[in-house]
């Protein structure tokens, strides 16, 4: 997992941004599409829902 290296401030800002985008969307599909435009991806994993970067796929944080 890569997100253990991120600072709390970075993780907090990204979580806030991602969740604010979710509030602006009517579906999970639209939310994922919008996040891809900003260079982020959302994936379900064994540890929960993970935000990662595109195109490298570096895991940033969990949303759960």
Describe the structure in your own words.
This protein is α+β, with helices and mostly antiparallel strands. It has one domain. The chain has a three-stranded antiparallel sheet. A hairpin with a 2-residue loop joins strand 1 and strand 2. The protein is globular. The mean pLDDT is about 90.
Radius of gyration over alpha carbons? Answer: 11 Å
Helix content: 40-55%
Give the count of helical stretches: 2
Strand content: 25-35%
Largest sheet: 3 strands, antiparallel
Order of helices and strands: HHEEE
Low-confidence stretches: none
**Which strands sit side by side, in order, in the main sheet?**
1-2-3
What does this entry show, briefly?
The chain is of the alpha+beta class and 64 residues long. The chain contains two helices and three strands. The chain has one domain.
Sequence-ordered SSE layout with sheet pairings:
Blueprint: H1 8-23, H2 28-37, E1 40-45, E2 48-53, E3 59-62
Antiparallel strand pairs: 1-2, 2-3
List keywords for this structure.
single chain; 64 residues
């Amino acid at each position: 997992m890569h997100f253990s290296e991120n600072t709390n401030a970075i993780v907090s800002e990204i979580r806030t941004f991602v969740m604010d985008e979710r509030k602006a969307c009517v579906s999970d599909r639209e939310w994922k599409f919008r996040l891809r435009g900003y260079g982020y991806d959302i994936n379900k994993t064994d540890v929960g829902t993970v935000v990662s970067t595109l195109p490298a796929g570096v895991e940033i944080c969990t949303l759960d």
